[in-house]
Amino acid sequence: MNVIVVGSGIAGLTAALHAQEAGHAVTVVTKGALGDGCTGYAQGGVAGMYGPEDSASRHASDTISAGAGLSDPAAVAVLVQDAAARIAELIARGVAFDRSPEGELLLGREAAHSHARIVHAGGDATGAAIARALAAATRHAAITVVEHAFLADLIVTQGEARGIRVLVDGAVSDLAADAVILATGGAGHLYAHTTNPAGTTGDGIAAALRAGAAVADLEFMQFHPTILAEGPAFLVSEAVRGEGATLIDVDGRRFVFDTHPDGELAPRDVVSRAIARQAAAQGSPVRLDATMLGARMLAHRFPTIDRVTRERGFDWSEEPIPVTPAAHYLMGGVVTDLDGRTSIPGLFAVGEAARTGVHGANRLASNSLLEGAVFGARAAAAVSTPWTTSAASPSAETPSIGRGASPLPRVDGTPFSRAALQRLMWDDVGLLRTEEGLERALDSLTLWLSAAAAPVTVAEREDANLLLLAVSTASAALARTESVGAHYRDPVASPLLETV
């Protein structure tokens, strides 16, 4: 079969390598260079290596608990049962996970994990090590790679995915396929502040929406609690808190215990909201105190964070550093079964672009790299098997771009721009949401969308994708009236401190 994989992070390259090894003709199409994307930014590691007092069932329980009870137990069972095999595969492909002097894999612990079960590489450079290894394996395999190609749309013929339309150097072309695997990542750039690299504009999810694929849980955007609050967004790994670092207010008090008995190791959504509220109350960023870990340990365990914090003028071994939340990971996406199949025959989705059901309302730390590897391999194994789900017809309710031909109207005096959209989403569809704010955001976004002209350039297409997803996200958030996980409906509007 002719298989096209769109995206080149851990999910996409795992799928591509497995499909090629199964005898399929594989083409990897990627927006940037091979290996670009969010995978290379991941600091924490890969969950799923169990010690003597740990088990897959305990990992599953922690995953479901962090997901606020909305995780699909069957998907979680697949995740944890396949974990050891996928970690072993990464090692075989050249990922040098950190080991003790005796050669044993070093295991870390992060928030909401009951045990240390996370393998890491280069201290806090796990994603970069994985991206390098998988990119090298792909280049050495009989896989065609098309770089700097923008996914414009899916090609759906008689209800089945039959290829993709891409934009390369300003020219549009069609690539035919028997199966398409979307591995295009999330949509962090819906928000004014995000840990995601610049190209993370939801292109695959938006293309799936336009094609009529089922999409769910877009209201569940995870905000990482600890981003360095000085300079461009830079993530300070949750593993730092797993090693013992604390969050303190202006008086040096560990304030997160006011919200949750696990304090700094509570689920990410809880910690992020606690930080946002405390920062707003005191009028300045909260601080992450890692001084008790010492300079030697910080430099050895977290070399990337140590370098960047020092470059920005902080000696975090001697003083607490200012941190703030930022949009990090989308739990929702294109709905799939346990093998990555979507509601459109021939179309698969894996990684952050997919809604597998693993994460529920809130992702457990270090499950994302594992999910990409596990479900990327499963999707590749399923491309030649009979399709078991029915295609979805395009919905009349699906928002669309291109119905207008005039410049986008002003909303409250503000013309459309990506920055204006991101500011609106940050303020009204972010960490703390109210019904009034969600309604205001949806009205504004819908007005912009109603007059949008058909996009032509890559930047215009990215903006169109973000606008489409913003409408869908605000709609989903407004429809879910209860607070759960990363979706928090605040009865009273709470201003967020602008720190990033």
From TrEMBL:
It is found in: Cytoplasm. The keyword Lipoprotein does not apply. SUPFAM superfamilies: FAD/NAD(P)-binding domain, Succinate dehydrogenase/fumarate reductase flavoprotein C-terminal domain, Succinate dehydrogenase/fumarate reductase flavoprotein, catalytic domain. InterPro entries: FAD-dep_OxRdtase_2_FAD-bd (IPR003953), FAD/NAD-bd_sf (IPR036188), Fum_R/Succ_DH_flav-like_C_sf (IPR037099), Fum_Rdtase/Succ_DH_flav-like_C (IPR015939), NadB (IPR005288), Succ_DH/fumarate_Rdtase_cat_sf (IPR027477). Its cofactor is FAD. Its EC number is 1.4.3.16. Residues 418-490 form the Fumarate reductase/succinate dehydrogenase flavoprotein-like C-terminal domain. Keywords: FAD, Flavoprotein, Oxidoreductase, Pyridine nucleotide biosynthesis. Residues 389-400 have a biased composition (Low complexity). GO terms for molecular function: L-aspartate oxidase activity. Its main location: cytoplasm. Pathway: Cofactor biosynthesis; NAD(+) biosynthesis; iminoaspartate from L-aspartate (oxidase route): step 1/1. Catalyzes the oxidation of L-aspartate to iminoaspartate, the first step in the de novo biosynthesis of NAD(+). Belongs to the FAD-dependent oxidoreductase 2 family. NadB subfamily. This is L-aspartate oxidase.
